[in-house]
């Protein structure tokens, strides 16, 4: 029995560390962009692709992960994903020019897109229902903490050393994880050997990739840009055809019928709103500090750091509380805190202190730690084991899209409101007015999440073959 427990602990630790360093890379480039621009003689718009392309490829790979989890063993998939990520890290760290650096980021994100859905699926498989909350709490630590410390860590490293060190310090960790996983990792997922459907893969890539790129573009150049509109139309049409194709298939690449499970659907929406708020506030606060108040990127990163640390501490704790009280109580209390803290960020001015920003963001992250993984776990608990891979892929995909859409809308609101305020004689700081209006929108969206959280119920997975599920009638 102790051997089994030790094996579970080792597998969980390995997956957590691997996922942590891969997801950390999602935001690691944000404050490293200025020195890269200088060294490689590129513009800010060009350099921004180092972050954008990582999110795009990540978003394309996540929906495919459900198919890959059913096709390959846990060990095969983990080692392959980490090896691809490691190769990308080497390419990026040694890149002689921007094109090679961007290619390295593409390789990195190809491996990263598989890691989080794989980790969540494995955790749900190896831990019993009464311990899933605690287990998923550690995943919450990875999802919230890793992206949040990226800007501060990269700001410190690039201020004192070369940006290449961002890749070189991760390289030995990644190689060590691959070696250890070769000896420790065992297969725990259910293999179904699904057939490869190239059309589904193409439609999924154009659909989810198109949406992510369109809204990322909208955040930079606006929703009326021809490029944004064309890519958005292509993305929507591809996604519609992809969904229709999946609904007609006996063994779809990504199962959309899981949205017939009520708690899963509500939990996914609430988690998406929470994650949108996380990425949105991480975008707005640094913009406000750097572009308006002239703080450095490192100082902006430091303001976000205490909230990230608090989330890292609280995620495992709220996971254990979830196992005792369920997701609804945590989600409602958490969303009340998140909504209140968001409201507190609607009244920024030219003299707002670093302490105020740090405290309000930390409070917001404290509430977020009570929402993200508890509602996700509550929703996944409703699914039968055979659909867990599809459930984890879907929740992660929805979070990525929500973050992209939310950030684009918030930046658009900030810009539009700022332009409006500039024409009004009574408003002294139109840019700050724009930021405040963006936080008003964010507060309104989180309030909607609060209302939805009330309808989350305590769930247990149905016994395979002994209960009729909403999609049990499929052939």
UniProtKB/TrEMBL annotation:
Pfam families named among the record's database cross-references: MFS_1
InterPro entries: EmrB-like, MFS, MFS_dom, MFS_trans_sf
Record key words, sorted: Cell membrane, Membrane, Transmembrane, Transmembrane helix, Transport
Location relative to the cell: Cell membrane
Membrane topology type: Multi-pass membrane protein
Transmembrane regions listed in the UniProt entry: 12-37, 49-69, 76-94, 106-126, 138-157, 163-184, 196-215, 221-244, 264-289, 295-317, 329-348, 354-380, 401-421, 433-456
Domain Major facilitator superfamily (MFS) profile: 11-461
Keyword Transport among UniProt keywords: yes
Protein name from the UniProt record: MFS transporter
Annotated organism of origin: Salipaludibacillus neizhouensis
């Amino acid at each position: 029995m102790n051997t089994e427990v030790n094996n579970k602990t080792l597998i969980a630790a390995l997956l957590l560390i691997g996922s942590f360093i891969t997801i950390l890379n999602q935001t690691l480039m944000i404050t490293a962009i200025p020195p890269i621009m200088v060294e490689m003689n590129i513009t800010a718009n060009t350099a921004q692709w180092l972050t954008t392309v990582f999110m795009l490829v990540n978003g394309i790979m996540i929906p495919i992960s459900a198919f890959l989890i059913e096709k390959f063993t846990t060990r095969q998939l983990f080692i392959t994903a980490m090896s691809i990520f490691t190769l990308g890290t080497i390419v990026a760290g040694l890149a002689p020019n921007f094109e090679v650096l961007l290619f390295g980021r593409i390789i990195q994100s190809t491996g990263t897109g598989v890691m989080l859905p794989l980790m969540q699926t494995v955790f749900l498989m190896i831990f019993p229902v009464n311990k899933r909350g605690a287990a998923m709490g550690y995943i919450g630590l990875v999802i919230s903490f890793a992206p949040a410390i990226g800007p501060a860590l990269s700001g410190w490293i690039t201020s004192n050393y070369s940006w290449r060190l961002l890749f070189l310090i991760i390289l030995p960790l990644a190689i060590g994880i691959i070696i250890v996983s070769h000896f420790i990792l065992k297969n725990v997922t259910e293999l179904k050997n699904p057939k490869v459907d190239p059309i589904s893969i193409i439609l999924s890539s154009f659909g989810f990739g198109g949406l992510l790129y369109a809204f990322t573009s909208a955040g930079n150049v606006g929703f009326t840009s021809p490029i944004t509109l064309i890519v958005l139309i292509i993305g929507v049409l591809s996604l519609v055809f992809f969904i229709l194709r999946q609904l007609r298939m006996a063994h779809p690449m990504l199962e959309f019928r899981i949205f017939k499970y009520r708690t899963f659907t509500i939990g996914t929406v609430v988690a998406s709103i929470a994650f949108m708020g996380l990425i949105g506030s991480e975008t707005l606060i640094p913009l406000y500090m750097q572009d308006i108040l002239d703080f450095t990127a490192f100082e902006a990163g430091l303001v976000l750091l205490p909230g990230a640390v608090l989330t890292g501490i609280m995620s495992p704790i709220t996971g254990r509380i979830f196992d005792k009280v369920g997701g609804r109580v945590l989600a409602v209390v958490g969303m009340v805190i998140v909504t209140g803290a968001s409201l507190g960020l609607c009244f920024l001015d030219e003299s707002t202190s670093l302490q105020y920003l740090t405290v309000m963001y930390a409070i917001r992250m404290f509430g977020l730690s009570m929402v993200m993984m508890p509602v996700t776990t509550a929703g996944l608990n409703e699914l039968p084991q055979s659909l867990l891979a599809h459930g984890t892929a879907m929740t992660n995909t929805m979070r990525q899209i929500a973050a992209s859409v939310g950030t684009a809308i918030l930046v658009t609101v900030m810009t539009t409101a700022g332009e409006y305020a500039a024409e009004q004689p009574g408003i002294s700081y139109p840019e700050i007015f724009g930021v405040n209006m963006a936080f008003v929108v964010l507060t309104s969206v989180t309030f909607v999440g609060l209302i939805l959280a009330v309808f989350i119920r305590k769930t247990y997975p149905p016994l395979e073959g002994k209960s009729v599920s909403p999609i049990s009638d499929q052939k």
